[in-house]
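Morning F.,

Quick status update on the modeling queue. The single chain you submitted on Monday has been processed. Sequence for confirmation:
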Amino acid sequence: MIFSSGTKRPKIHSSAYVAPSAIVSGDVTIGAGSAVLHGAVVTAEGAPVTVGDQCVIMENAVLKASGGSALTFPLKIGNRCIVGPQAYVVGATIGDGCFVAGGAKIFNGATLERGSGVALGAIVHVKSRVSAGASVPMQHIAFGDPATIYPPEKAPEIHSKMNFYADVFNLEPGDDVRARAAETYSKFLRKVHAQDAAVEEHRNVKPPPRRSGEEPPQTQATEVDKVVDVMMLELEEMEHRRQQAIKRQKG
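Structure tokens below.
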């Protein structure tokens, strides 16, 4: 489903595919030839989300941006990227040609440079940078700028070097910081989503043929009454051919 958030409405290229069970909400741009599969959530909460051309956002992946008065974390995904099933990417910058495998997590302020990869279940932590062409192995943790790769058992050491709640929630540490984070974040989300409203669902359209070197049509806000459900037309044509074949056999 497609949701507006306040005055912000998703802009989905006419050649992009958004599954009926996916959620696209707020200030989100999805580029030409990209596909957002079933159960995926792409939501802008106070900052924009941009998904480039020819990207694949797989089943149940979560892509988020967030921004308040103190901290802003837009999410930008470059061209020709894959985000695997159940991956979680929030407030990060993903360069062209990157691969984020299933179950991977990439946190606020992190950067994947061009052509880098994050394997199954790996983590790129807050404000960390993975160099161009590098890879974070399965279950490992990338931390730092430039990132050092740590095995899973080093997680406590990494935790001691970072101030997650200050960097993400702008909260001073303390015994009750987790509770304060929940209180602050719930208040923020109530405000951001107070005016959310479902809008007409985006449907695929068959892109018109283009001459060599011609620019693709501009990305526009979803307007269902001005597009054609090509998949339905194809199904109707198949059924028509099937009925004609039956008639020929009977004749």
